[in-house]
Specification:
Elements lengths: L22 H7 L6 H4 L32 H11 L6 H6 L2 H19 L3 E5 L5 H8 L3 E5 L3 H13 L1 H6 L3 E5 L6 H5 L4 E6 L10 H14 E12 L1 H7 L7 E5 L2 E10 L6 E11 L5 E11 L3 H10 L2 E7 L14 E8 L9
Parallel strand pairs: 1-2, 1-4, 2-3, 4-5
Antiparallel strand pairs: 5-11, 6-7, 7-8, 8-9, 10-11
Amino acid sequence: AAVMTVPAGVSLEAALGEEAISMEDFSENIQPEKTAREELRGYQGRFAHIGETSKPKQDAPSVPTIEPVVQEKVVEDVHVHSRELVSATDYDELINWSSRLAKETALYHRAFSMAGARSVVNVGCGSGRRAIMFAEWGLDVLGIEANPILLERARELAAEANPEIIQSRGSVGFVSGRLGAISLAVGPEKVDAIVCVGDVLPRVESLTQLRHVLIDFSDALNPSGVLVLEIINHTRFMQQRLRATAPAVFDTVEGTKVFLRVMDYPAASTVVDTDLLSLTRDSDGEWSVSSERTQNLFISSTGITRELFDAGFDVLEVSGDYNGKELDQFKDESIIIIARRKRHRPSSIR
């Protein structure tokens, strides 16, 4: 499990970084007359209308460039937070995406089948590879990402995959959005599944913000819709006081890169401070270093299960990997969860 970071509330990706804002704050920045779904109306795929089965026109254009849901002021903030991003392009280069997606496929098929899913939102979608894969399965997909660099890359990759997406009768679009305001981006037409992986969720800054984000996920889902989460197993890190991850070394056009994380555990704190480091050796043998400090809220498996229940979810599976292995909270690196939104939620969160 890789750590991308998003202190709650700021843009979902760009090392997603700030704090999960309140609904009121977000509504001031969102274009009230257009939801993300409405921005996609011009696309010829089924995503324009969730569940629509009419065949896309053969002369359909490539996946469109969708205007961000947020106003320019928010986009400017994202650029500020991106200036130290080591996790945007570096993270994308680091992952062997063919291998990773192949490993994850069975779990997504299982989760989507539980809800008969036809529509999916990928929160913190990064460069869009998962969202595109879902669209190639014939699903209607909305990828939400705050980092403008990754958002543009996602649109480029979707355009390349457009023939396969049209052939499968799927659709995909990408918009800028934030944790805590997914239901606003989706609009009144609920979706069948939400995928939030890559350890995006712990970037919220407080338990209050975590609860707000989970309720927002529930608000965006149809009754009995499913939520797939992946979070880093903080219990393992805290128990062993792990200070660093094993370095990953890979070659790029810029030179040899080394990527690693260094963790600190502030006393009497509920967060883990993480420095993301990217070291690059160019063709002359010179080294350069980029770094980014993030904070992850400590979330245990029992804690997230309890919070999901209180937010109106039934937890169906908790595992230590994408193969459904039983979670060992002292050894496994990640926690994988499949939860289903309750048909009748407690009145306190309606």
